[in-house]
What we know:
The protein has about 100 residues and is mainly alpha-helical.
Amino acid sequence: MSKAADNMSGQIAAHEDKIRALIAGEVKSRFTESELSFSMGFLYGLRSTLDYTDMADITDHERHNLIIELKRAISIIGSVADAERKRRDQLPKGGFINIIKRLFS
C-alpha cells in the first residue's frame, strides 16, 4: 500500500474511533457536537474526493479499498443519529413555561 493510502486509512480509522468514543460517552467534551460534525464531515468529504478526483497518488485498487473502508466508517453515522434521537427523547418535554413550573413545584 502506498504511503498516501496508508495515511488516508489512518485518518479514516482515527475519525471512526473518535466518533465511536464520543457516541459512547468515553470522551467528555463541551464541544462534542462540533467534534462529531467535523469527523463526519471529514469522512464524507474524503469519500467525495476519492469518488470524483485523484488528488492522491494511489492506485485504483487502493482507492477501491479506501472507499470500502469509508463506507464502513460512514455507516456508523446512522447510529450517531439514532443515539442523538434517544438522548433527546430522554430530555424533559415542554417549553420554557413548563420548565419554570417544574422548577418551582
